[in-house]
Design a protein that fits this description.
Layout lengths: L2 E10 L3 E6 L7 H5 L7 E2 L6 E4 L4 E10 L12 E9 L3 E4 L6 E4 L4 E10 L1 H7 L1 E2 L5 E8 L7 E4 L3 H18 L1
Parallel strand pairs: 5-10, 5-11
Antiparallel strand pairs: 1-5, 2-4, 2-7, 3-4, 6-9, 6-12, 7-8, 9-11
């Protein structure tokens, strides 16, 4: 059974949202995705998640859940990635520029985070809306050992674009 930590409209700008330690001052998108396979959930910096949405500006349906073990509800989502995540203190779900901050009751520890998306292409096409057509689910569950990020499922053109964009950036950076 899941504990719901957030379930509401989340306002995004530039197709971005974040999970950050309380009282942090942000981080760069490049650093968040460095060395990763996926381009939707940047987790290269411990305790930070950089989340990409299809909608550029507006509200998206967003849900955050805490599970006691690996959740199994992949069939309902078009795009799914998983990343390692650690919690050393209080963390928040944040909108662009901390315009709104939502505390997430995640106990200290090591987690796997699954970021799932639906209708990313429709969100990209709409671009700006009070409530976009795309929706997102961020799930956490405790793990004993961390593993690399993984692309579990990719069906949208937006997910494909972002997965490839970070690989291209890394190739240019590493020569």
């Amino acid at each position: 059974m899941a504990t719901i930590l957030f379930n509401s409209i989340l306002h995004v700008h530039y197709g971005q949202a974040y999970v950050l330690p309380k009282a942090s001052h942000g981080f760069s998108i490049e650093a968040a995705f460095l060395g990763q396979e996926n381009g939707l959930c940047g987790a290269s910096i411990p305790e930070y998640l950089f989340l990409i949405t299809g909608l550029h500006t507006g509200g998206v349906q967003f849900r955050v859940e805490l599970h006691d073990h690996l959740p199994s509800d992949l069939d309902d989502w078009a795009d799914v990635v998983e990343v390692p995540f650690s919690v050393c203190g209080p963390v928040n779900l944040e909108e662009w520029a901390a315009q709104a901050v939502y505390p997430l009751e995640l106990p200290k520890g090591q987690y796997r985070a699954r970021y799932s998306a639906n209708e990313m292409d429709a969100g990209k096409e709409v671009d700006t809306a009070t409530k976009g057509p795309d929706s997102y689910l961020l799930q956490f569950w405790p793990v004993d050992m961390q593993t690399r990020d993984t692309v579990i499922k990719q069906t949208s053109k937006q997910a494909e674009y972002w997965h490839q964009a970070w690989k291209r950036l890394e190739k240019r950076t590493n020569g």
